[in-house]
Amino acid sequence: MATSTxxxxxxxxxxxxxxxxxxxxxNVINNSVSIGLASAPSFFFATLLYFLPYTxxxxxxxxxxxxxxxxxxxxxxxxxxxxWAFLGAFSYWFVNLFYFASLLPIIxxxxxxxxxxxERVFSQTAITIISIAVFAVATWVSTKGATWxxxxxxxxxxxxxxxxxxxxxxxGGALLGGLEPATPxxxxxxxxxTSTFATTWAFLGTLAWIIQGVGGAESVGVYINDLRGGxxxxxxxxxxxxxxxxxxxxVASLLMTVFVPAGELTYSDGIFQTMGGLGAHLGLxxxxxxxxxxxxxxxxxxxxxxxxxxxxxxxxxxxxxxxxFGKRLVELNENGVPWRAAWLQFLIVVPILIIPAxxxxxxxxxxxxxxxxxxxxxxIPPLFIYLAYFFFRKNYDAVPRDFRVGxxxxxxxxxxxxxxxxxxxxxxxxxxxxxxxxxxxVYNIGGVVIFIGGAYIVYARYIRRxxxxxxxxxxxxxxxxxxxxxxxxxxx
Length: 492
Description:
This is Amino acid permease. It comes from Actinomyces respiraculi. With about 500 residues, the chain is an all-alpha fold. It has one domain (about 5-490): Amino acid/polyamine transporter I (Up-down Bundle), CATH 1.20.1740.10. It has 19 helices and no strands. The chain has helices spanning about 10-20, 25-35, 40-65, 70-115, 125-140, 145-175, 195-215, 230-255, 270-280, 285-315, 320-325, 325-330, 340-355, 365-375, 380-395, 410-430, 435-470, 470-480, 480-490. The chain starts with 10 loop residues before the first helix and ends with a helix. The mean pLDDT is about 80.
């Protein structure tokens, strides 16, 4: 479908879509519960060492692939060819399947606060049924494209940013006015607890959560063809969003213990505890605060749900060869969305929503299980992108482009450094200390190995068949697209 026939979104819509994909106060809570004030400097350094370089790399890949519908798939194929592009896009889609298991149940928490002013207790059966129903609606909306998604994220992300800035400003004002924080904010409090192996390993595992918390900027790359202003507008917006989100994460984490003592926050209710403390300081009733916060978080989380329902499907299914799964599955509708693949994703997620609930007696327990599971696997797709970027700068840096990150050596060094860091963090995130062995084996390790291994087998089968009937086509599929760009430039 030609780009000109698609409705366009503006830069503010792209900003809110980025915020919806990347920023959520829930990430601040999760990491504060786990490692306390140490999450503040962790978020700050994660922004400098991960999110900012990552957004710059994405911007460079977008410049190289201006007409891409799939983002990650085309970016990886630029330097590594079709095989690695397929595996990278599949891993992105696969790991995000597990994200729904943490995102959908928390919607019930926010909805109960928005409507009743307090958390309502749901049975595991009710949690699962409602989550499936919400995901079905989200899947339908996601097939309508960037315009529909942008309308929802405009509301949710705007409310989220307004609430977050209000929290930072009002809490900072309270401290300047002489308020004594419930837990003192000191340099010592911001240092991670490394007194035992268990606490050290837990902190290292939490780094996976934090990197996941500032990740997701690649998700908006699939909407480059829907953006007014094109590549230049995309680069400006995503870099601004990256800096704003990273700083907001760090400052908000620093203020988490002003009203609530360290150690008393919980995963599911932490934001209501924190905002309730601020509301009490301002003389506001808890019922009013809970409903307002619940409404904001519900709107923001629904926007995030739409982004993560649509983006992985577009990344994986939009531009892979039709001979792998069949042309009907990857066919795009008038909005540039592979709608049949979106509904296939829905059918796959349903059992993922059911199985984790069998080992948990509450929403809070369910969240702890799936947070560990999601954070570790979420590091796989960035590793593919850094690998692709390293070899692009190494082998194809001569490709002409309008934007690049530093010199060839700088780009290679940055990518190599991040691959080493993420490999270490991935190990600690995959093996969380104290988690039940069967969960670690089945979800954190077994699922990733089996499904990515299965993807490799599927692609190898496709290449064997293609090579048998079209050897040149198979060679072209496995060749990096940047090679053709270098040859074209040499001929000029």
